[in-house]
Amino acid sequence: MLGLDKKDAVLLVIVAVLTMFAPFILNPFPEGSAMAQFNAGYPDLMQRFVIFGIFAIGFNILFGLTGYLSFGHAAFLGVGSYAAVWMFKLLSMNVIPAIVLAVIMSGLFALLIGYISLRRSGIYFSILTLAFAQMMFALAYSVLTPITGGETGLQLALDDPRILGQSQTPEGNIPVPGLFGFEMRDSAELVIGSWVFTFNLGYYFCGVILLLAFYLAIRIFRSPFGMMLRAIKSNQQRLNYTGINPKPYTLAAFVISGMYAGLAGALMASMDPLAGAERMFWTASGEVVLMTILGGVGTLIGPVLGAGAIKYMENIISKINSDILHSWFAFLPDGLEDFVVTIVYPFIGKGWHLTLGIIFMLVVIFLPGGLVEGGQRISSWLRNRRARRDDRRSKTEPAE
Amino acid sequence: MDAIILQILNGLDKGSAYALIALGLTLIFGTLGVVNFAHGALFMIGAFCAVTLSRLIGLSHKVEVEGETDFLGNPLTKDVPYIYDWFGEATGAAIVDWAVPLAILFAIPVMILVGVVMERGLIKHFYKRPHADQILVTFGLAIVLQEVIKYFYGANPIPTPAPSAFTGSFDFGVLIGFDANTIIYPYWRLVYFAFAAVIIGAVFAFLQFTTFGMVVRAGMADRETVGLLGINIDKRFTIMFGIAAAVAGLAGVMYVPINPPNYHMGMDFLVLSFVVVVVGGMGSLPGAVLAGFLLGILESFASMREVIDLIPGINQIIIYLVAIIILLTRPRGLMGRKGVMED
């Protein structure tokens, strides 16, 4: 199917099903129940899952395949956001030209930064990308204020030209981003019993783009080009001796992953039309590294899982407060309840970063392959157990 | 001329902090070959050692003031630190005042302990793993450490003043023959610079003039051979990790009066320190110190009004710009050795 072998086709279908039915899957608990706060099926969060999924897939094409650890990838995300918002300001509120320009701009920036940074490898490459990203952040924050909006960020205004669209709606509001007449914030709600499912146009738009991005990533992973990138990761020197110059390949990978980041940034701006410099700060670059590692470096599905896991924790765990904890552990005797709550409390709410840090460390120490490796280990363990049980059953006692 | 001297002085204190952190990073990298992203967190822990000590010293109990009442007619109480009861009022007040310098004594054992525990407990298991894994696990550790500090001390900066003898500024210009009020410089920054110089000198002397240091230097050059000679080099490297942690911690302790510590100060310094290390040359101790001061001074020159008018925004990016130029023109940094982190 689509030039994929069976395993990849299955993977793509699984991802497609997960994205398309996410409003159901992420809303397993009825509205108003005690577990409802674990529901993640609201548009804002689902959009973030998908957008950061795209970002992480792109990062993985660079880090997972070539082994070059870029610590400044958020810069391209920021460039994409700014480009998209400028398109909204100047051209029209249609998201398509915004996304196209964002991808082109971030690609150009990636070409420039990649061309310089890729002269070095290892930690020097990481520091170079970090330095470029920090420079872009600092400039966007201060000197480039006319272009980037500085500290307040780049926002839409009523007097923007929007030559193909309208400067303001008939009611005198700033128009919202849309796709040929449909607005990104349009949502439909489906109520079944006490369950409420929200279907948001913006989410589905992002979801379709995620699928395209994912499909492209599979094709890259399986292509001769992907093979070349893997060769760069495993032994660059040998590649040199074979008479192949690895630089164009790594640069291509860098530009592609920068374009993915720009795409993610454009989608962010399409969902919420503003862009701020903090999107380019180095902690944002660190976050995508965390996502990729947590999910599984070099695997196809891993980065998407990692992005989902981190965004879920950020939004759901950080919302739990001590009252909720008390209601959970109410079945325990009072003293014990307080004790358990005291123990758990530092890890939730504002302390979710602590949980994240600990999980991340455990993953790096024990599961270098991330969640994907964890899944594989569990499934192979189950399979072994079943095999052993079948073995025992089928063993016949020797006749005496 | 006076403006140039002033900018050099201004660059010295930040440069000292960069140099101390970069020195510790390089010690760890040069001995154990580990890229320690948690080093900024050690700097931060050092700063919070000072906060902790000044809080401990300030612990007080309530005492009724004879013959005075508050507006409700209750006896007026005031807080008296325990330290006043133990050492008398004058000495007690002096100790409270000098809490930050005293924290040096408190921080050294704490930081060495933290460093040794970190090395034995975590980093030991990462020697054979790729550099990327080391970066990632120490990055995770840094997140955990700073969240723990945030949990106990809150997210806001905690002002902790320098001893009153060193607060305020003095006229440095008069000392070197300029007119009065041309070069005004805070006392504590000068103390910080002197302190950094002493620490850096001590570390170099320790490595250069003691048998222990000689063995460590031999181990940095060729670990395997030193091991074959029957020397337990791992144990010495562990101790060096503790010393590197202590250097970072002391840099943090003394930095407290300059900048009130908060939980993410370590991360803020870490990124710059890495740039410093790379500019200086991975694994080169003099390179780290040199690059630290150089970048600190460059940064302060770039913040001069005249320079900013000429090239807007240069003060924000100068360090990164210098790093990029140096990395591209001198691939091993200013004083890097051949064969270190070449892959």
UniProtKB/TrEMBL annotation, chain A:
<dbReference type="InterPro" id="IPR043428">
    <property type="entry name" value="LivM-like"/>
</dbReference>
<feature type="transmembrane region" description="Helical">
    <location>
        <begin position="9"/>
        <end position="26"/>
    </location>
</feature>
<feature type="transmembrane region" description="Helical">
    <location>
        <begin position="94"/>
        <end position="116"/>
    </location>
</feature>
<feature type="transmembrane region" description="Helical">
    <location>
        <begin position="248"/>
        <end position="268"/>
    </location>
</feature>
<keyword id="KW-1133">Transmembrane helix</keyword>
<protein>
    <submittedName>
        <fullName>Amino acid/amide ABC transporter membrane protein 2, HAAT family</fullName>
    </submittedName>
</protein>
<keyword id="KW-0472">Membrane</keyword>
<keyword id="KW-1003">Cell membrane</keyword>
<feature type="transmembrane region" description="Helical">
    <location>
        <begin position="325"/>
        <end position="348"/>
    </location>
</feature>
<keyword id="KW-0812">Transmembrane</keyword>
<dbReference type="GO" id="GO:0015658">
    <property type="term" value="F:branched-chain amino acid transmembrane transporter activity"/>
</dbReference>
<feature type="transmembrane region" description="Helical">
    <location>
        <begin position="123"/>
        <end position="144"/>
    </location>
</feature>
<dbReference type="InterPro" id="IPR001851">
    <property type="entry name" value="ABC_transp_permease"/>
</dbReference>
<feature type="transmembrane region" description="Helical">
    <location>
        <begin position="201"/>
        <end position="221"/>
    </location>
</feature>
<feature type="transmembrane region" description="Helical">
    <location>
        <begin position="288"/>
        <end position="313"/>
    </location>
</feature>
<dbReference type="Pfam" id="PF02653">
    <property type="entry name" value="BPD_transp_2"/>
</dbReference>
<feature type="transmembrane region" description="Helical">
    <location>
        <begin position="46"/>
        <end position="63"/>
    </location>
</feature>
<dbReference type="GO" id="GO:0005886">
    <property type="term" value="C:plasma membrane"/>
</dbReference>
<feature type="transmembrane region" description="Helical">
    <location>
        <begin position="354"/>
        <end position="375"/>
    </location>
</feature>
UniProtKB/TrEMBL annotation, chain B:
<keyword id="KW-1003">Cell membrane</keyword>
<feature type="transmembrane region" description="Helical">
    <location>
        <begin position="16"/>
        <end position="35"/>
    </location>
</feature>
<feature type="transmembrane region" description="Helical">
    <location>
        <begin position="98"/>
        <end position="123"/>
    </location>
</feature>
<keyword id="KW-0812">Transmembrane</keyword>
<feature type="transmembrane region" description="Helical">
    <location>
        <begin position="310"/>
        <end position="328"/>
    </location>
</feature>
<keyword id="KW-0029">Amino-acid transport</keyword>
<feature type="transmembrane region" description="Helical">
    <location>
        <begin position="42"/>
        <end position="61"/>
    </location>
</feature>
<feature type="transmembrane region" description="Helical">
    <location>
        <begin position="237"/>
        <end position="258"/>
    </location>
</feature>
<keyword id="KW-1133">Transmembrane helix</keyword>
<dbReference type="Pfam" id="PF02653">
    <property type="entry name" value="BPD_transp_2"/>
</dbReference>
<dbReference type="GO" id="GO:0005886">
    <property type="term" value="C:plasma membrane"/>
</dbReference>
<dbReference type="GO" id="GO:0006865">
    <property type="term" value="P:amino acid transport"/>
</dbReference>
<feature type="transmembrane region" description="Helical">
    <location>
        <begin position="270"/>
        <end position="298"/>
    </location>
</feature>
<keyword id="KW-0472">Membrane</keyword>
<feature type="transmembrane region" description="Helical">
    <location>
        <begin position="190"/>
        <end position="216"/>
    </location>
</feature>
<comment type="similarity">
    <text>Belongs to the binding-protein-dependent transport system permease family. LivHM subfamily.</text>
</comment>
<dbReference type="InterPro" id="IPR001851">
    <property type="entry name" value="ABC_transp_permease"/>
</dbReference>
<dbReference type="GO" id="GO:0022857">
    <property type="term" value="F:transmembrane transporter activity"/>
</dbReference>
<dbReference type="InterPro" id="IPR052157">
    <property type="entry name" value="BCAA_transport_permease"/>
</dbReference>
<protein>
    <submittedName>
        <fullName>Amino acid/amide ABC transporter membrane protein 1, HAAT family</fullName>
    </submittedName>
</protein>
<keyword id="KW-0813">Transport</keyword>
